[in-house]
Amino acid sequence: MSQFRRIGIFERAAQPLLAAILLLVCLLFAGHARAELLTVSANSALPDIGTVASGTSATPFDVRASDGLVSYGAGGGQFIPFNASRTSLTTITINCSGGNKCRNNNVTITITRGAATGRLSQITGFEAYLSGTTTARLASGTSPVSCTCTSMTFNILPIADSGNSGSKTFYLGVELNVNTSGTLGSATSGYTITASGTGFTTGSASPSVRANVQAKLGIQKASDLNFGRIVLYPAKSGSVTWDAANQTLSYNPVQVVDQIGSTSIGKFNVTGSPGQLISLSAGGNAGLPTKIRLTNQKGQTLDIAPSTTAQSSQTIPATGILPFYVGGTITISPGMNTGTYSGSFSITAIYQ
Fold first, then answer.
1. Tally of CB atoms within 10 A around 8
2. Do 287 and 195 belong to one domain?
3. Same domain, 151 and 104
């Protein structure tokens, strides 16, 4: 009887010991499965190329990684205001926490383009700058890293300089187009930055390139400035005037000449984005030259003193069309050279 009691005591004592061993094994396995955490942070609205006008064809815009300088190429697109200078420095921060892999293991960075809205295209190229004031460094190769591509990958040295956590930064640049079609106004072109590596929990962020895209600015001629056929009277002086303000043709004095044939006031339409300010190129009367010189078939000249309803600063109305008129005055004097006179002038409108 006493032997059976000893056996029962032994079996009961062994059960807590076994449970303790199982608990220790579970704790060891839980510690072994831990992964260091990577996170990516970036300003969600950068790069920002600002307010721009679309052109006659797709216009490439470039944001340089090293300093954020924004520039554009052929296609007719431009900054608003015209010839402005613009920078949009975009800093990407990679964070690591939770263990010694942060100071021992390289990290893989992958940047992939996303969807686009409005008149921005998808991203056509990437550039990463990892030198100078940035703190991330390439595991191999030289900075900057760039490609004309939809996705770019490179490796950086460990995030932590010491300890089990840290952060590193680099600058990002992009290339993309401003298109001629699509919804005007706010436009975006997305991209995703992913940080990954062996033993790490992957981190990512998805910012967007941003722009405010306005319609291209243009000038169309609706009618020429035409004084028609003027018949001179001997020994008479005076003037013939096309009045731009009220679009009327007048003579001073009334009988200074005879007018024959069709005539027209010069009419032009500026087209662009409603509500935007525009200005005309400098020189003379709101962008016109101080005189318009005409030449006949013999090479003889005749000058017109021009006038216009255009102003140096105007707002495009809700219709998107701003009309203006160009007139002028011809001075009549005895002995003027006869002939058919013609000439030209140019007006350039730009966004303010």
1. 10
2. no
3. yes
For residues 204 and 230, state if they share a domain.
Answer: no
End-to-end CA distance of the chain: 108
Tokens 């006869």, residue located: 338
Residues 161 and 248 grouped into a single domain: no
User: pTM, whole model, 2 decimals?
Assistant: 0.79
186 and 237 part of one domain: no
Residues spanned by the domain of 262? 218-351
Q: Is the domain of 52 the same as that of 69?
A: yes
Supply the DSSP symbol for 12: H
The tens place of each residue's pLDDT in the chain, 352 residues long, gives 444 444 343 344 444 433 443 333 333 334 444 689 999 999 888 899 999 999 999 999 999 999 999 999 999 999 999 889 999 999 999 999 999 999 999 999 999 999 999 999 999 999 999 998 899 999 999 999 999 999 999 999 999 999 999 999 999 999 999 999 999 999 999 999 999 999 999 999 999 999 999 999 989 999 999 998 888 888 888 999 999 999 999 988 877 777 778 999 999 999 999 999 998 754 445 567 788 889 999 999 999 999 888 888 899 999 999 999 999 999 988 888 989 999 888 888 889 8
Is there a single domain that holds both residue 262 and residue 207?
no
Tokens of 116: 């686009």
Out of 189, 214, 239, pick the residue that ends a domain. 214
The CB density around residue 162, as the number of other CB atoms within 10 Å, is 8
Q: Are strands 200-201 and 36-42 parallel, antiparallel or unpaired?
A: parallel
